[in-house]
Structures are given as structure tokens and as C-alpha cells.
Amino acid sequence: MTTPIHAAPPAGSPEGAGPAALLSVRDLTMAFPGRRSATGRRGAPVRAVDGVSFDLAAGETLGLVGESGCGKSTTGRMLVRLLEPTSGSVVFDGRDVTRLSQRALRPLRRDVQMVFQDPHSSLNPRQTVSRIISDPLLVQGWSAADARRRAAELMELVGLIPEHIDRYPHEFSGGQAQRIGIARSLATGPRLIVADEPVSALDVSVQAQIVNLMERLREELGLSYVFIAHDLSVVKRVSDRVAVMYLGRIVEIGAKRDLYDTPQHPYTRALLSAVPLPDPAAERRRERIVLLGDPPSPAAPPPGCSFHPRCPKAQEVCRTERPLLRIAASREVACHFPGD
Ligand SMILES: Nc1ncnc2c1ncn2[C@@H]1O[C@H](COP(=O)(O)OP(=O)(O)OP(=O)(O)O)[C@@H](O)[C@H]1O
Ligand code: SF4
Ligand SMILES: [Mg+2]
To answer: Given 17, 192, 244, 317, which is the most exposed site by the fewest CB atoms within 10 A?
Structure first.
């Protein structure tokens, strides 16, 4: 039995979310123009993100998961306004930042920062660490000397040796380079960090160190994270709540424990069934749900529930009626038949 949602704050939201949330995202949509064919005709727009809504409280981490191409990065880039949404709103600390001019965006650039997947390619190889970390401060009007001093402090904060401040990115390992990326993101004293696959490009042994660092920084600095990753074990470790995306939409969102212990959406169940379990007995009992085929193109999403061509539970109504997010088992699920 499910209950439709009418109120603005989504279920599974932090208590008191809505007006009090640090970040409120409503109906966020990104439709990229379709590709031109050889005859010059433009194809259907690619709805990479299609009506995404969620809240994030101060100090909270929301994990964003889903298969490649489901719209995670596009969502993250719209949150920090690296991409202009086609429609919808992003309200940060009570202020709609969706359509601000570049000039009016300055305070947002201070408060909201992004950490990228590949540390080496996201750092300018021709700049020293000092310059890389100082850059956001220089943009905010700091003097070069103050910015350099702050860069050295930040290096220490993220576990780098401040004496290496005049080195170049190639002189650092992948893990160290990601620490530089994190230090740069912290330079302006942000309150929210959107981390897009921050550990996926790193060796497994280094991943845990970076995750530990991000958790420590969250506590010490009172940060909030939107943590994008395809590794569900990493997301389980860092998140308070988790949102599962499929073909540009959130299909399940709720408290981490609810979602991992009793996934309600067939897609979430399939994703989680692929995660190895630490307990050997449970691992032996683990049943994999293998999804057929690849996700459809966001340029031509299937009618009804966009997951229906791959869903083991699909019924007739799924082919025609799009399920909206509704409360089921203490979280929100977009499925006509949630649960077992
Ligand atoms: N600039 C663009 N123009 C057209 N289509 C785009 C553009 N950027 C992304 N897309 C398409 O939008 C969809 C979502 O892409 P996005 O990069 O957000 O997915 P993702 O979930 O981050 O995937 P991954 O896990 O591989 O990083 C994909 O179909 C992608 O091809
Ligand atoms: S709505 Fe139907 S097709 Fe979609 S996930 Fe639920 S059961 Fe599967
Ligand atoms: Mg991505």
C-alpha cells in the first residue's frame, strides 16, 4: 500500500527539511539538444535529468547512485551551476540560485564547490599547488600572500606536506592529487561539496584514505555532501540518505539503512544484489538479480515506467502509466508495485 505525496518536502528528507533545508532541489531538468544527423536534422532532445527533487540538510550526506549515463554528473553540475538547467529550481540556503547572473553567483561559488573524479585531469598541470589551491581565493579578491598562506594551511588540513606547495600536480600520486582537489574545494570555506565519483579513479587501497579524509572534514568543518558514486559500498559508508537514479529520474530515495536493508524499487534491488557481502555465509546465499539489456537512451525513454523493459516485475500498467514518487516503507519509491 502506498501513499501519494502532496507536500513539497520529499519523504526520507531530513527532519524539518523544506524551508530549513540547506539545499532544496525541485523538478530539476536538463534537456540537451539532440544530435544533428547527416542530413542536418536535429534528433530528439536528450533528457539527461528529468524532474529531480530532493532536500539536503546542513551536515548531511546524500549519496547519488545509478548506472552510467543515468544523469548523476549532469545533476551535480547543475547544483554548482556549471550547467544551466532547462527548468526546475535549486534553492541554496533559502535563495533560488538557478537563474542568477555570473556576478550574482559569486557568493554561491564560495559556498558550493565541486570535487571531480579524475584528480590529475582536473588540476592544471602547468600550475603549482599553491596556485591551484589559491585560485578560488584570488577570484574572491584575496591578496596573493594571504591566499598562499591559506593554501599551505589547507594542504596541512588534507594531509599534504605544506613544504610541497611549489610542486606541480605530476609530482603527486593519484591519492595526493585528489587531496589537492579537495583542498582547492575547501579554499573558500564552502558549506556544500558536490563530489562526483571522488574515489573511483583511485587504487582501492587509497580510496579508503580519501573517504576517511572526507568524513573527517565533514565533521570538523560541518560540511554537507552530495556524494555521487557507482560503488554502492562506498555510498553506504558515507551517506545518511541515498537517492537511486534511473534514466534521469530518482526512482527511490530514503534513509540509507531503509534503502540498503529493504530496497523497495526493483532497480534498487537489482543494483544491491550485485554488491558482495562481507559475511561469508550471507555472501553464499546472495542471489544476483541480473538485469537484461542496457538502459534505454534518454533521447527515447520508454513510455510508462522507463524501467519496464528490464523489470522482472513489470505488468501491463507499467507500460502505460508513469509511476510517481510515493511514500512506501518510510522512503519514496517510483514504482506501481514496490516491495518484494
Ligand atoms: N553535453 C551533453 N550533450 C548531450 N548529451 C549529454 C551531454 N552530457 C551528458 N549527456 C548525456 O546525458 C546522459 C547523462 O549523462 P551523465 O554524464 O550525467 O551520466 P552519469 O550518470 O554521470 O554517468 P557516468 O556514471 O558514466 O558518469 C547520458 O546519456 C549522456 O550521454
Ligand atoms: S512500475 Fe512496474 S516496471 Fe516500473 S519498476 Fe515498478 S514494477 Fe517494475
Ligand atoms: Mg558521471
So the answer is: 317
